[in-house]
Amino acid sequence: MKVYLVGGAVRDALINYPVVEHDYVVVGSTPDEMLSLGYKQVGKDFPVFLHPKSKDEYALARKERKSGHGYTGFICDFDPTVTLEEDLYRRDLTINAIAQDENGKLVDPYNGQADLNNRLLRHVGPAFSEDPLRILRVARFAARYYHLGFIIAPETLLLMKDMVANGELKTLTKERIWLEIEKCLKTSTFHLFLEVINDINALADVLPILPSWSNLETQKIASANKFVATKEMAIDSDTLQVCHFCLCLEACSHEDLKHLEQTLKIPSTFANSLRDFKLLNNFLNEKDFSPENILKFFNLIDLWRRPERFNLLLEILKYAQCQQDIAQTLQNCAMASQAVTAQQVIALGYQGAAIKLGLQTARIAAIEKTLS
């Protein structure tokens, strides 16, 4: 039984990139042996185990053969005679097919180190085309390491285009597509991911609500990311993901947004924020900032029961570097109208159904005073 560190931990350490997790491959072992050593198996049919203390993943060396359509249509062979080289051969990219033994010695049968040095994302072998999920993974890697100068090898890019043309991406579940998108959002590289997806003609399969993606759009998002970094804006990581998502999908229509929710089943925070951002853009484009219209906007975004949605919307505006003065005005109007309470209206003599009208009248007056 031999244990090797594999995948992202080896790759990222070699390019001085932060290592997030450690995955291991175990050669010459069996499920029974792993269980007897205290490892906990993940799933019933997949030879992956969690270390009893560190909880890192340890996978038995395995070979795979295609047995059906899509990224789940594989039969795994994890016999203890499977070699490390055979296990590494099934991996997607050469830079992910480097292993390290317990003494720190690297095992690199497919020249992953050379591709790391040359900043190339190159597929290991023909088995790449059997798994459509790898199209999205390579696009995500290209986005993540773009700032380091990585590009997709021409032969790999051509293979990805062929896979898209053959309809391979149509076998992926929408939930799996969203998971890849979410990983890009966590590193604020979704715009670069979209550029690759557009280059390989895969937008129709990944995000059909976007008919195209241009370099100008990429530059716009890159400018927003640089603005946040330069100004050292205090935006937490979860909020930044939502901001990045909304600016990337700003061009989609309300009808498209509904379709997006139904197909990708995106979290409500992302969907509601994008909807509010588009609603605000429509409001700003109309340039009718009367107290009545401002109150109508506040009602539409449910400022009274969901103030956190409005606060998140303000963060999106900061990230998008647009209408900063208007954003401040809206924030002032929101604070003034929120200060109006039902108790104040009742004290003025309003009763029953008239209380709602009284609240609206008082809020309009508060907004008008703020604007004057």
Task: Report on the architecture of this protein.
Helix 11 crosses helix 15, helix 14 crosses helix 18 (354-371) and helix 16 (324-338) packs across helix 18. Helices cover 53% and strands 10% of the residues. The strands form three sheets. The protein has a seven-stranded mixed beta sheet with strand order 3-4-5-2-1-8-9. A two-stranded antiparallel sheet has the order 6-7. It starts with a strand and ends with a helix. 33% of the residues are buried. By secondary structure, the protein is of the alpha+beta class. The protein has three domains: 1-131, Beta Polymerase, domain 2 (2-Layer Sandwich), CATH 3.30.460; 132-206, Orthogonal Bundle (Hydrophobic Seed Protein); 236-372, no CATH class. Strand 8 (99-100) and strand 9 (106-107) form a beta hairpin. It is built from 18 helices and eleven strands. The model has no long low-confidence stretch (mean pLDDT 90). Residues 149-210 form the tRNA nucleotidyltransferase/poly(A) polymerase RNA and SrmB- binding domain. GO terms for molecular function: ATP binding; CCA tRNA nucleotidyltransferase activity; metal ion binding; RNA binding.
